[in-house]
Amino acid sequence: MSLIDLSKQVALGVDIGGTNTKFGIVNHRGEVLDKGNLRTDAYDKVEDFIDALYEHVHPMMEKHGTEKHFDGIGVGAPNANYYKGTIELAPNLPWKGVIPFAELMKAKFGLPCTVTNDANAAALGEMLFGAARGMKDFIMITLGTGVGSGIIANGSLIYGHDGFAGELGHTIVKPGGRKHWSTGSEGSLEAYASATGITITAKKMRAEFPESMLNQYPEDAINSKTVYECAIKEDPIAIEVFRYTGQKLGEALANFVMFSSPEAILLFGGVIKAGDFILKPAKLHMERNLLPIFRNKVKLVFSELDEADAAILGASALVWEK
Amino acid sequence: MSLIDLSKQVALGVDIGGTNTKFGIVNHRGEVLDKGNLRTDAYDKVEDFIDALYEHVHPMMEKHGTEKHFDGIGVGAPNANYYKGTIELAPNLPWKGVIPFAELMKAKFGLPCTVTNDANAAALGEMLFGAARGMKDFIMITLGTGVGSGIIANGSLIYGHDGFAGELGHTIVKPGGRKHWSTGSEGSLEAYASATGITITAKKMRAEFPESMLNQYPEDAINSKTVYECAIKEDPIAIEVFRYTGQKLGEALANFVMFSSPEAILLFGGVIKAGDFILKPAKLHMERNLLPIFRNKVKLVFSELDEADAAILGASALVWEK
Fold this sequence. Notes:
The structure is a homodimer of 322-residue chains.
Chain A lengths: L8 E8 L3 E8 L4 E8 L6 H20 L3 E8 L3 E2 L4 E3 L9 E2 L1 H9 L3 E4 L1 H12 L8 E6 L3 E7 L2 E2 L31 H5 L1 H14 L15 H9 L3 H25 L3 E5 L7 H13 L10 E4 L4 H15 L1
Parallel strand pairs in A: 1-4, 4-8, 9-12, 12-13
Antiparallel strand pairs in A: 1-2, 2-3, 5-6, 6-7, 9-10, 10-11
InterPro entries (chains A, B): ATPase_NBD, ROK, ROK_cs
GO molecular function (chains A, B): glucokinase activity
EC number (chains A, B): 2.7.1.2
C-alpha cells in the first residue's frame, strides 16, 4: 500500500522568540495535538537550546509516534534564512553570528527541518489554516513589539534572491521622520505602528495635552494597552494616538498594495486589540493613497487564528508548503 | 518528426503607446527580424486600429511565414490586464472603457495573444534577452514621461490577484508632497522621478535661483534634456535638480528592496540619459535607507537593451514566458 494516509501525517512546529519558544505537534487540518514551551533566553549556546528542546519534545513525539508519522520540522525565528537554513545575526536572540539551525535540528531530531522568519511562517499558517485559505496573493502584517511581514504572490512566499524579502516594517513611511530605536532609520513603519511606536506616540501626545487621561498613569505604564483603556473611555488624545498610528499604517499599506496587488491584507498581533481605533483610519488612508484601479478591492482583515497557537501553526505550515 | 525546431519559432511583439505603436517579428534569440510602426492616436475605434495593424504586419508575416512558425502575439500596453486579456480605462489611449484586446487580436490574426502592461513586458524582455538573464528576482523601473515597473519574483512576474500589480510609480515617497498632475495623489514617485517630474522640479528651482543657466531657456524648453545640457556644463542648479530626483528615486528603491529583496534593479527609459547625475544619488539614498542585511547587495544598473527595440522584445517575451 503506497498511498499516504494524510490523517496520520503530523509536523512539529517551533516558534522561536527572544524570550520564549513555543512548539507543538500539528496535523494536516491545522489542529494542535500537543504543545509546550521553553525559555529561549536561558540557553547561551544554541546546541544547549536544541538539546533542551529535544528533551521537551521527545516525550510528545513518543506519545504520538506510534500512530503518527512525522513529516518534518518547521521553525519560525527572527532573521531566519529559508534558503540556507540559517539564523543570521538576530539581535534579539542569545546566539550570535550565523547559526546553521536547520542542520543542527536535523542532526538532533533526524527529521528534515525548514526555517523562515516568524512573519513568513505566520503568512503560511494563514494560507493553509486561517483567513487566507484559497488566496494566492495576500500580505500578512504582524503588529507586535515590532512590525513583521510575509508576502504571498502567485501562491508562494516571496523570499527574494537572498531569503530576506518581506521586511515591510522597515520601509520608510515618513522620510526624515521618527528615528528607530534600534536600526537608526528615520520614519520607518515600525517606528510608528508597532507597540513600541504607539508607546512613543502616546508619551509625546500626553505631554502636549495635560488634560488627557493618559496623564493618570506613571510614565512606565504607558503602552498600547493603557492607551486602549483610555480610548474606550473616549479620551480624545488616546483615540488620536491610535488614529495617527492607523494613518501611518494605512499610508504604508497603500504602497504595499501598489507593489503586489494582494486580494487581502491580514493583520495579526497584540496591536490589533485596538480594533477599529486603528483599523478605520488605516483603511481610510490606505484607500485615499491608492490609484483608482486598486480602490475598494483589498480586504483589510484581522487574522482568524488563535493567537496562542498561530505561531506554532505557521511554523508547521512550512513543512507542508513544500 | 515531433521535435520543435526553435530556430524557426518566431513571435510578434507589439508595443502600444499613447502616440505610436511599434511592432516586430522576434526570434528565440531576441533578434528583431523585421519591424515597423503606426500611429495609435489615428484610430478612434480599436477595431480600426487592429485592422490597420494587420495591414502593416501581414506582409511581414507572409515574407517570413514560409520558413518561420508564428508562436503567438505579445502585446505591451498601458493598463493591460494579463489575466483577462483586456486594456482597461487607459487614460492615454483613444479607446475608452474595457477593451477585450487579446480576443480581438486573436480573431483577426488567428494567433494566441497575451497582453500585459508595458513595464511588465520590459521586465520579461530583460529576463529573456537583457541585463537580467538568469535572474529570478529583480525589479524593472521605466523612467520616461511616467514611471512604470515590472517585478519578477521566484522567476515569474508578479501580477497580483487582479493583474494590476507593479504600479511602483504611484507609491508615495513623500506623504503630502507634490500633487500629481493626473492622479491627484500627493508625493508619488512619478511626481518626482519621471521626465514630467524633473521638468516641474527644474522650473521651480530656476525660479528660486536666477543665476542658474536654466534661466537661459524659454519656459517651454525646460525638460530633462535641457537640464542635462546645463548639468554637463556644471550648472549647480541643474545638477541639484538631478540630485534631488535621484534622492527621491533612491528612497523609493530602498522600500522596494525591503519588499522583494531583488538581486538587481534595472533602470530603463529616457530619464536614465542623465546617467550618474541621477544614478549616484539614487544609489546613496537607497543604501542609507536600507536595513543593514540588504546593504551593498542590490545591483542598480541600466538596461542593456537597445531602446528602439526593447519594447518589441519585451512584448514578444510574453509569448515565450508561458
